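Recap slide: Major facilitator superfamily (MFS) profile domain-containing protein, sequence and predicted structure.
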Amino acid sequence: MAFTMSRLQQSSFRAAGVNGGCLRRKLQAEIPGRVLVSGLDKVVGCEGGLALNRVDVAGVRVRRWHQCRATAMDGENPKLSSVDVEKEAQVPLLEQVTGDAKSGEFEWNAVLWPFFFPALGGLLFGYDIGATSGAAVSIVSPGLSGTDWYSLSAIQTGLVVSGSLYGALLGSILAFNIADFLGRRKELVLAAGLYILGASITAFAPNLAVVVAGRLIFGLGIGLSMHAAPMYIAETSPSQIRGTLISLKEAFIVGGILLGFLVGDNQVDSVGGWRVMFGFGAPIAAIMGAGMWWLPPSPRWLLLRAVQGKGDVGALKGEATDAMQRLRGPSFSRKSAEEECDSQWSALQTACEGEDANVSFAELFQGVNKKALLVGTGLVFFQQVTGQPSVLYYAAPILQSAGFSAASDATKLAVVLGLFKLIMTAVAVLNVDNLGRRPLLIGGVAGITVSLATLAAYFSFLQDYPYLAVGSLLLYVGCYQVSFGPISWLMVSEIFPLRTRGRALSMTTLVNFGSNAVVALAFAPLQDLVGESSTFLIFGIISLVALAFIVTSVPETKGLSLEQITAKLDSK
């Protein structure tokens, strides 16, 4: 039996790390002689043949594939209805690769907590952004700072503001060395401890050096939680609601920003209010830590340890089954938990056999990996250097410069920005799969460019119109939240080939936190050096470059499988 593959299909297999010759031999050995294959586009006599036109046939256990093969081996023509094919086409590829069984039954009160407690780590990240906006006003106020060292230079203010970002950068580096050893749950418990320690040290700091140290420790918690929380949520959520929960995690981050603005508004007129703003995260982190201590480990992490030979296989599989039952609720039977764990165990064995663990650093800069890395790091880089950290961290000071002289006025308007950001997040989540990634990115970044140009004009010659600055900030926040905000990380999760995805994502994370910290630190000195107008003009020019990058380099990934996205990059 012979068959051919189209160039696009061959490109898909190469991008996934599958050798075409090996694939042909594998398929020839598995596909019964009664089923004729032509380019994997059609199975003669199989009404649902198109269901097999996927890279999944290289051994990733597609249920319809096994049904088709089993039926053919019985000497009958496979019969798949168009409804079956449509349902199979809608099964997320991530679910097929990870072996997620359709559990069918779960209890919402059981699956809520494995989402809620990790998501608090994201809420604390957002809270730090929002609270720092008000604290940056309070800590340098002669009457409200409550210290004798309130007269901070621009560099010192930048260290207070961006200290947590430098800690997050270090935390993201450490995470990749300890994550597999600790597991997702213990990593989040450690993150909660660092949150508590950092917030407490900052709140009771006797001098600037201790403030910066506390901010760095809090940032370590950010780095660990932003690494472990998405993995824990994805690995413990039922497949039916995984997408919903991951989308809600973004809302927790934005909700945290709004909470930070609200606390800042409440405390900005109090002497030493910045201490309350920074310390408010400690009790939230305590709830997070207690919740994560109570939750079970990720069943997938336990099974991964077993596959890697890092413990007794039987004991680890038993622990994974116990954890699965707890995560799904009392009505989820032991048998169902065992079946789901067995499905994940089989998929993990297949994944480990098919991947080369020793991906070299140089390989990230070759072929399709280089193209994907350019898109991924480019998006998160421009996400930061178009001024986003500055607009959020310095929202209150910017509004003060715009004519709202009272600190309380500025922070109240910052609350409006946070609420608007939350609303626009919902708009983006509801429309990203309908409109596509590129239209939202292009339209949003174009709006960002206009808003930054308007801010530059305001600070240059339109200062008699303070509400113009408010409108420009609202435009900036709205456009950012329907473009760079949610879509950058969505695309980063889609474009990297499976075999190099881990290392590529680690590099992308470092670029994100690194550029974020640099921009936050540089904003205040840049304002002092060239003034507000020129600062926003520089950000506007960078936004224009970002727009050109998106138009020329970022592909549309709407409706494509992960392999099709990789093949699309490989064919360019």
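The mean pLDDT is 74.
The chain has four domains: 7-91, 101-295, 299-354, 356-572.
(End of recap.)
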